[in-house]
């Protein structure tokens, strides 16, 4: 099989598949409870009442069972009520305390929504790169760090080169799974609308006064034609581990933030070479001010120009204080978009196709079509431990075997989907027995434009760019959380494994 036809399958299997005709135990219990009144009415001979109850209970069962764009109707109703309650009580509106003149400590994070649970302590110096900012997720109990990668991209690589990168990515995830400290990795790629601030500052610094007039004219014409639509990319990687995994080795290293940092640093040192094997020419672990800049430019892409001018004037990296890292103003999010600092963002969850996909096929989500538009793509990985992987494959194989045997005993034939699922379960169990691991993942993407533009037009362009290859689910009623998962390099975006221990 050639690299051009290499397909990566088994990407869309549910974490917790239903045992009873595809239903979860809660859904099955509710359906049985709704069926009891109808059965009792039929047993008593009240057929009219049974018909009326059947219509009501059948509608209620459909609301509980039938998914509508990824969520059952009853769950949609619950999320809508929570969304409306947040707006009515003012929880969804946001204004920076620094802008309101209420900030007392400029080093205290002031961030909206799910970011409010994050803390950003600085760890001790790491070799010659200085202090590294740790990301402490107090909600999920996780510690991590973020690095900026210098990478040329994969758009110009051959199929064989992409195949090698894919294999190295698999080796990286496998090595993470064999470590006891780190279990999650997030790769985030953001396009940067280039307004020419960096180039203008560089040009002013290197201008040659006696350059020929024709050369100046040609350069200015190229600036007008090419510079207006030029796009750069910035790549981030975030690695994190659980508090439970860090607690004991951190206590041996002195405890506290410094102890957790020391344990994380050992892993970061070991993974840096593997990141470079993926094509990264540079790995820069971010300090607190640098991570604050990444968050600030995520909320407000236009602020990159001012930060670039300050950086050139200072002759080095210039960060921002944590009190000003968030948005200045973020009104209550609409159901279909998130508005922040004069920009609007639409976020999506990307669903993998049943037939599988090829390496590099997500690149279409980063194809900017309009000057001033920004696109983001984040892939969140979690490698399961060997124990959890074996438990998961045994459970999947047992479930598929029981369902197949039950259908055979009742005279039902297994369809192609059941046969493929059973074969995949056996192949996965053999792979785990051979030393491979299981990787959970989630993919999020977003498009950001000035809020004076038509957001639906640009959302439609993003959907059209990937139509026929992937399915995009718009993060209805959760656009603020979707923005964090798709745009900000803080490692938030993959929920806990349902029914599994952390």
Please characterize this protein's 3D structure.
This protein is an alpha+beta fold and 502 residues long. The chain is built from 14 helices and 16 strands. Strands 4, 5, 6, 7, 8, 9, 10, 12, 13, 14, 15 and 16 form a 12-stranded antiparallel sheet that branches. It has a two-stranded antiparallel sheet with strand order 1-2. Strand 1 (67-68) and strand 2 form a beta hairpin. The chain is globular and about 100 Å long. The model is unreliable at 1-8 (pLDDT under 50).
Which labels suit this protein?
502 residues, alpha+beta, twelve-stranded antiparallel beta sheet, 14 helices, 43% helix
SSE blueprint:
Blueprint: H1 25-43, H2 47-65, E1 67-68, E2 71-72, H3 73-88, E3 94-95, E4 118-119, E5 122-125, E6 131-137, E7 142-151, H4 159-177, E8 184-193, H5 197-206, H6 213-226, E9 231-242, H7 243-252, H8 256-277, E10 280-285, H9 288-299, H10 303-314, E11 329-330, E12 338-340, E13 343-351, E14 374-383, H11 386-409, H12 416-433, E15 439-450, H13 455-466, E16 471-474, H14 479-487
Antiparallel strand pairs: 1-2, 3-11, 4-6, 5-6, 6-7, 7-9, 7-10, 8-9, 8-14, 12-13, 13-15, 13-16, 14-15
